[in-house]
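Usage

Read records sequentially. Each one opens with the input sequence:
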Amino acid sequence: MVIEKIIFYLILIDSIGANIIAWFFSSLYKKNMNKGILKHLPASKGWCFWYLVLVLWVGYGLSRLGII
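and closes with the structure output:
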């Protein structure tokens, strides 16, 4: 059960970091990243918001199951 907690919290930290970049540092991200990376990994507010919502939804399900 410990591996599920570790994976969930790593993904949660990633989604929070993606939202911070998308909402507060988008111009810095676009300026410093390679254009090829930006094409495949855009830091748009909408995608990052839904990423966080889905991670929180999975976390809610895991907490109801008693895993985290």
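Summary fields computed downstream for this record:
- The helical segments are 2-24, 26-32, 35-40, 45-64.
- The two ends are 8 Å apart (CA to CA).
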